[in-house]
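Something for you to look into today, if you have time. Could you write out one complete protein record for me, on any chain you like? The space below this message is yours for that.
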Amino acid sequence: MTRLRRRALLAAAIALPHAARAQAVFPSRPIRYIVPVAAGGGSDFVARAVTEAWSHALGQGFVVDNIGGGGGAIACQTTARAAPDGYTLLQGYVATHGTSPATRTKLPYDAIRDFTPVGMIGATPNVLVVNATLPVATVADFVAYVKRTPAGLSYGSAGQGSLTHLTMELFKQQAGAFIVHLPYRGIAPAFNDLLGGQTQAMFPGLAAAMPHIRSGRVRALAVTGATRHPLMEQVPTMIESGFTGFDATQWYGVVAPAGLAAPVLRTLNDTLNATLAQSVLRDRLSGEAVQPMPMAPDAFAAFIREDIARWTKLARERKIELDS
């Protein structure tokens, strides 16, 4: 072996541990955080509140990248194709990793195989609201009213296959009642027609409904979930109202491309959960009626699978199948 060759091998041997240590340091640069909706809405608020606090725990900043379009499909594809190195994350939520996989036959990504679940952020319940002029005060009143008026009532949703659509279909199934579905392009126009009396009921997320509930223009009858929400402790749950196991939540979580290394995943999950425990962040999230729900990666993966399975079962039973 030549002297030059020996020197080269010695230099490589000395450099190898340093390179390994450098690769083991995560994160060493800012993280791209993809949000599958346009800037300005509830999902965007959650993303910016969480990443601002999370950056302190990680010692690195986040670059929030809003990629709307395709009901979140474009953002999901972008994330799934990225390197699984922890530097590209997606704020998945009930649409991208719950209702869309359950209802859409041509989804260009696999919500399970294409991603590594990092952790849950939190959730907000849905709330059954009616136009304030409707002569009902409880869920039982509403069910009786619907059955007396089988052809005269309609409900709005944020779109075909949305959580607001499927939650009302779950209600109709359990109540044995019929209400005409009118899908809108988003929750805002759906609320406009509910306030105007063109529709009579809806099952929006609590954060979107709160201003209208407080104004008195819509009446809240019940919230989804196992417990009453602290913002409306006087409003019963659907379960209290006689709907066994009735649950639907607008949830938010963090996923990475499939194949994320275990040490990086552990760092992300540990710091995310520590961040969610901070009272300052919890107070900020309460502005969107979001209650933090920290989870280990395995628990979050199970949550996603169960949510998809539940909505898939309902979609099949209600014959809801969308091409795109």
Summary: The chain has two domains: 30-123+250-317, 127-232.
